[in-house]
């Protein structure tokens, strides 16, 4: 008993000690100079020409690492304010990058600027770690070079009327289709939601006359991740994520169920994920499917000219899902003005062009979007066309579970006829919006 | 050897042994084969078990453009210093715990264990803040200190177990012959304890060599260790399998060499105390 008491006291003492240490070093209570590398980076550079910024980023491969270092070098050499950016690459680590960034920030060692994901915004803003960019953007001469909808998405992510994230590049979902199948079915590229539903029906074909469907009109994604294309159907009927139980949202859900029940999509759609919908499309099993530019090179390699794209058409509403990468400036940065110079260079200047052209991501800058490289690429064009109505699934405490568990399970049961559209939408609404 | 007994041995010994070895070695073989495949074979639709066009381009890129020598040096530096520091501290501590009676001995022993009770992730923020305030952040020393927080307590307990099995009479005999305690420790205890120290050292080295969670946070581009550098090759939308597997193969070489030389002592150390006589 005595020994147990001693061990408990020791454990409590240790917890207290660590807690006090962390608290005394937290960013909100210290304004001491940063240490080690950051000491160097958060102060004026040695020659007194201008500030030095630390920039944390992840790169998808070593070519992108070199690319980012080249962009940094060019910025350092060309900016007229003597700003020096020091780029530090960190592993993406399946999203662990954001955890590393958060730990460093809470521990008082945040960089000046870092690449960022929208979904982490509430965590960082709740801890006052990010700098408010409202004034910077308001006074920025290239403010209008970015679609207002993108700024709105940044605001939605923070759950406030303020912008904490500087847009950088996106991946907007659009519809891939096979022109040869459209021609065979006698269908034009749909411009309205109703035409889109008709195209799905007509491109579902029995090509060899054996009574079996050989080509399905649409590659439906019923597994995790499918909530993004599904959201387009809901919005096309005038529904929204805010009220999934509205009549319009339920009608969108009914369309989704009807497409499955009528046999316009493969029977495996209830469990089909990214790999399956892409494989079905590439094997000629489906005439249309929804994804972003990340698949375009692969599609072109498979089909050559016999693959093209169009933005998800408008019905009573129009929506498509947007993937994202942004940049943020940390509240602890002593050089926020210089940091904004850097993030704006990446958002709407040479940095934007260099990065998006080399990586194939969709630019947020309208000027860069106008370049021939993007305008002559039909997949990029479909992405850019969708940018004005692109959006995200609301970021809530419930979102992760909703995406990973509630959505796929509920959709599967609805498609298999175990639940009606009303019942399914009731569950989905409660799962997403429960407090 | 008769035909029957040879066949019997084949089925009862060599076949199961071969199967187990295949199971154990195949992942390493596949890693190696992937590292020497050209890109078109690596991402091609047909699986090849040995490359048609063998290439060492990924190794050239790894040590050329990717500068893999730097993280290798950093890892070696951190793992070696951590091993030396931990062994020095924990051998002394374990000797004190087993050979001297002092007030609070049990409490101190328990105290050594408390650190291991905390999940590493819980120590991340406090340790980060401490390293930052003492200007150790982004230096290899920060990793040595961080790793010591969990290798020392564990090693003390391991070595205490070994030392308890070592009879006091060994040192007492040396001391009767005129040696003082320090001399008795170095000349009598340490040589006998060496297999256990090597076993503990190998454990510490491997822990430090493979650790990722602290390494990603406490290092920067100049001080990155191997696990962090290799993780950089796993992106959001793809994996650079050629470089990753080449790096993996290079990474296991020092550990294999270490095991090769320490194998005998390691087995002796791990089994020390298992036979009472």
Task: Summarize the structure in words.
The complex is a heterodimer of chains A (435) and B (277). Chain A has 435 residues and is of the alpha/beta class. Helix content of chain A is 48%, strand content 11%. Chain A folds into 2 domains: 36-171 and 322-391, D-Maltodextrin-Binding Protein, domain 2, CATH 3.40.190.10; 174-321 and 393-433, D-Maltodextrin-Binding Protein, domain 2. Chain A contains 20 helices and 10 strands. In chain A, the strands form 2 sheets. In chain A, strands 1, 2, 3, 4, 8, 9 and 10 form a 7-stranded mixed β-sheet that branches. Chain A has a 3-stranded antiparallel β-sheet with strand order 6-5-7. Chain A is globular. With 277 residues, chain B is an all-alpha fold. Chain B has a domain at 70-236: MetI-like fold. Chain B contains 12 helices and no strands. In chain B, helix 5 packs across helix 7 and helix 9 (181-210) runs antiparallel to helix 12. Classes of the chains: A alpha/beta (435), B mainly alpha (277).
Brief overview, please?
The complex is a heterodimer of chains A (435) and B (277). Chain A is of the alpha/beta class. In chain A, 48% of the residues lie in helices and 11% in strands.
CATH topology of the largest domain in chain A: D-Maltodextrin-Binding Protein, domain 2
Shape of chain B: flat
Largest sheet of chain B: none
Rg estimate of chain B, integer Å: 24 Å
Which CATH-level-2 architecture of the largest domain in chain A? 3-Layer(aba) Sandwich
Mean pLDDT of chain A: 88
* CATH class designation of the domain at 70-236 in chain B: Mainly Alpha
For the secondary structure, the number of strands of chain B is: 0
What helical percentage do the residues of chain A reach? Answer: 40-55%
Q: Give the overall shape of chain A.
A: globular
Radius of gyration of chain A: 25 Å
The secondary structure category of chain B is: mainly alpha
Distance between the termini of chain B: 38 Å
What is the CATH architecture descriptor of the domain at 70-236 in chain B?
A: Orthogonal Bundle
Secondary structure category of chain A: alpha/beta
Main location (chain B): membrane
Family (chain B): Belongs to the binding-protein-dependent transport system permease family.
Subcellular location (chain B): Cell membrane
GO biological process, one term (chain B): transmembrane transport
């Amino acid at each position: 008993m005595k020994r147990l008491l001693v061990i408990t006291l020791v454990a409590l003492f240790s917890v207290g000690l660590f807690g006090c240490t962390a608290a005394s070093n937290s960013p909100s209570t210290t304004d001491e100079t940063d240490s080690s590398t950051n000491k160097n980076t958060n102060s004026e550079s040695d020659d007194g020409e201008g500030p030095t910024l630390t920039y944390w980023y992840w790169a998808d491969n070593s070519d992108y690492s070199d690319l980012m270092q080249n962009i940094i070098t060019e910025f350092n050499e060309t900016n007229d304010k003597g700003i020096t950016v020091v780029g530090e690459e960190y592993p993406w680590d399946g999203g662990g990058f954001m955890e590393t960034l958060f730990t460093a920030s809470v521990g008082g060692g945040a960089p000046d600027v870092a690449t960022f994901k929208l979904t982490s915004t509430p965590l960082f803003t709740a801890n006052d770690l990010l700098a408010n960019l409202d004034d910077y953007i308001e006074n920025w001469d290239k403010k209008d070079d970015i679609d207002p909808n993108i700024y709105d998405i940044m605001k939605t992510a923070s759950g406030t009327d303020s912008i904490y994230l500087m847009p950088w590049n996106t991946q907007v979902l659009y519809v891939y289709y096979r022109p040869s199948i459209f021609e065979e079915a006698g269908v034009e590229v749909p411009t309205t939601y109703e035409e889109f539903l008709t195209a799905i029906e007509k491109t579902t074909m029995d090509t060899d006359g054996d009574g079996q469907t050989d080509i399905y009109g649409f590659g439906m994604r019923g597994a995790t991740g499918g909530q993004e294309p599904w959201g387009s159907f809901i919005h096309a009927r005038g529904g929204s994520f805010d009220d999934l139980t509205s009549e319009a949202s339920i009608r969108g859900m009914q369309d989704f169920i009807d497409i499955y029940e009528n046999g316009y999509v493969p029977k495996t759609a209830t469990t089909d994920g990214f790999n399956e919908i892409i494989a079905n499309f590439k094997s000629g099993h489906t005439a249309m499917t929804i994804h972003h530019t990340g698949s375009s090179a692969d599609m072109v390699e498979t089909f050559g000219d016999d693959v093209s794209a169009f933005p998800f058409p408008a019905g009573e509403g129009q929506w498509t899902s947007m993937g994202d990468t942004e940049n943020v400036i940390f509240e602890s940065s002593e050089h926020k003005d210089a940091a904004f110079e850097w993030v704006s260079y990446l958002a709407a200047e040479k940095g934007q062009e260099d990065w998006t052209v080399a990586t194939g991501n969709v630019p947020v800058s309208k000027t860069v979007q106008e370049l021939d490289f993007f305008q002559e690429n039909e997949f990029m064009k479909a992405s850019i066309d969708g940018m004005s109505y692109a959006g995200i699934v609301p970021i809530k405490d419930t979102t992760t579970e909703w995406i990973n568990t509630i959505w796929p399970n509920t959709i599967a049961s609805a498609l298999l006829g175990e639940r009606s559209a009303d019942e399914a939408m009731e569950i989905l609404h409660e799962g997403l919006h429960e407090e | 050897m008769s035909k029957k007994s040879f066949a019997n041995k084949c089925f009862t010994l060599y076949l199961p042994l071969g199967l187990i070895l295949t199971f154990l070695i195949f992942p390493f073989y596949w890693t190696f084969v992937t590292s020497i495949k050209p890109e078109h074979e690596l991402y091609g639709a047909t699986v090849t078990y040995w490359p048609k066009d063998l290439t060492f381009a990924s190794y050239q890129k790894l040590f050329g453009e990717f500068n893999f020598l730097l993280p290798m040096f950093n890892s070696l530096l951190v793992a070696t210093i951590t091993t030396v520091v931990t062994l020095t501290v924990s051998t002394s501590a374990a000797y004190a715990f087993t050979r001297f009676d002092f007030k609070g001995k049990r409490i101190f022993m328990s105290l050594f264990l408390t650190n291991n009770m905390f999940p590493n992730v819980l120590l991340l923020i406090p340790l980060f803040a401490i390293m930052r305030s003492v200007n150790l952040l982004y230096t290899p020393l920060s990793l040595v200190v961080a790793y010591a927080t969990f290798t020392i307590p564990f090693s003390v307990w391991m070595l205490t177990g070994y030392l308890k099995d070592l009879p006091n009479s060994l040192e007492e005999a040396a001391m009767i012959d005129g040696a003082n305690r320090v001399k008795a420790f170095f000349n009598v205890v340490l040589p006998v304890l060496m297999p256990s120290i090597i076993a503990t050292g190998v454990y510490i080295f491997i822990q430090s060599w493979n650790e990722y969670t602290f390494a990603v946070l406490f290092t920067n581009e100049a001080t990155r260790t191997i696990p962090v550098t290799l993780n950089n090759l796993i992106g959001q939308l793809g994996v650079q399998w050629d470089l990753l597997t080449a790096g993996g193969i290079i990474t296991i070489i020092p550990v294999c060499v270490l095991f090769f030389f320490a194998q005998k002592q390691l087995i002796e150390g791990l089994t020390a105390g298992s036979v009472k006589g």
